[in-house]
Structure formats: structure tokens, C-alpha cells
Amino acid sequence: QPLYVLCGAGLTEIASAALTDPRIADHLTLVWIGGPEYPDLALPPPHYTALEYNLGIDVAAARAVFNRTRLPLWQVPRDAYRRVLLPQSQLLTRVKPQGPIGAYLTTTLDGLLAKLRQYGLDLGETYILGDSPLVLLTALQSSFEADPSSSDYALKLAPGITQAGLYEVNLAGRPIRVYHHLDTNLLLNDFFAKLELRQK
């Protein structure tokens, strides 16, 4: 069975591990939610920040993973993870009624949204479940010839990452998967169904 290391924020721990013992690259695949758009695959969102949030948590670690290791990498950059939108209507109708877990998740998310509003940030009718593709790409693979077959990726040479946290061309980079279309229908409906099944 493959070993997946799932990173939904910075890359500090996996960078440290890979630099300490590079042989781990032979035994795992890193799945990372982070990094800006690739210009040939997607445009950045309006009013974007050049330094993508998760990469910016630890730029040095991201530089180490991309520039100095040979870790197999499946990357879900900003344009892809922003697709996982949970509307408030589904939070109220598909999550909240599902017992203590549904109530807890709804209360937690409502609390976060309320805090953001105190700082003048109103997220409107949707919330991005940006780390959830980690589940989609690993636990929800096809049964035969196992792979995240319902989501689309491009094979690219791993770019270098600059001190500013931006991509630069690296013609010696290893091939990596860059996911650009995620099966959000599978991801969200599986989530809703599992919440419901726990109540039966």
C-alpha cells in the first residue's frame, strides 16, 4: 500500500524529515495543498496575493521540498483548492441536522465566520473547504488501478521556488502532479453521506 503524507498548510515537518533522511523519498508520496497558480493552467483570483497562504507559512520549507528533495509530489495549488465550496445552505441542510458531529462542525464554522466578520471580512454564502482534497485524492480513489481517477492533473517539472515564494523555471526538476480540476461532487457527497450514515 502506498504511504501518503498529507500536508494542508506549511511544509516544515516533511522538509525537515526529507533533509534529515533523503531515503524517505523512496517510500512515500507527498500530497500538498498549496502554492500559487501555474500560468499555463489557471489565472489567479482577483486581488490575489503573489505569496500563496500555505506556501507563505514556511517559504524556506517549500523551497527545500521543491528545490532540494526528490520527494514524489502531488500538488493542489490555489486555483484547484478554491473550487471546494460549501454553501451556507448545504451547511444548514446537509451538515447541521446530522447529530452531535454535524452540530459541532456547524457551530465551529459559524464561530470562525463570526470572528472574521469582527475584522470586517464577510465570506458571504460559501466557505472554501480547501484542505479536503487531501481526502479526495487518497481515500476516494478508483477501486481498480487505484488512482484519483475522477480528478484531473497535469504532469509538470517541479519548479524552483524563490526566496519570495514564487515559481521559477527548473529544467532539471522532477516530474510532479499538479491538480487543476477536482471532483468536488464526489468529495462533498461522500462527506454528507458519511455524516448521515453515522446517525443510522
Q: Can you tell me about this structure?
A:
With 200 residues, this protein is an alpha/beta fold. It has a domain at 4-83 and 131-182: Ribonucleoside hydrolase-like (Inosine-uridine Nucleoside N-ribohydrolase, Chain A), CATH 3.90.245.10. 38% of the residues lie in helices and 18% in strands. It contains eight helices and nine strands. The strands form three sheets. The protein has a five-stranded mixed sheet with strand order 1-2-3-9-6. Strand 7 and strand 8 (167-168) form a beta hairpin. Helix 1 (12-20) crosses helix 3 (59-68) and helix 5 packs antiparallel against helix 6 (99-118). It is globular. It starts with a strand and ends with a helix.
Instruction: Look at the structure and name the CATH superfamily of the domain at 4-83 and 131-182.
Output: Ribonucleoside hydrolase-like
Please outline the major beta sheet. Answer: 5 strands, mixed
How much strand? 15-25%
- What spatial form do the alpha-carbon principal axes imply? globular
The helix content is 25-40%
Tell me the CATH topology of the domain at 4-83 and 131-182. Inosine-uridine Nucleoside N-ribohydrolase, Chain A
CATH class of the domain at 4-83 and 131-182: Alpha Beta
> SSE order in H/E notation?
EHEHHEHEHHEHEEEEH
Gap between N and C termini: 31 Å
Q: What is the CATH architecture term of the domain at 4-83 and 131-182?
A: Alpha-Beta Complex
Low-confidence stretches: none
Q: In which order are the strands of the major sheet placed?
A: 1-2-3-9-6
* Overall pLDDT level: 97
Cα Rg: 18 Å
Class from helix and strand fractions: alpha/beta
β-strand number: 9
The helix tally amounts to: 8
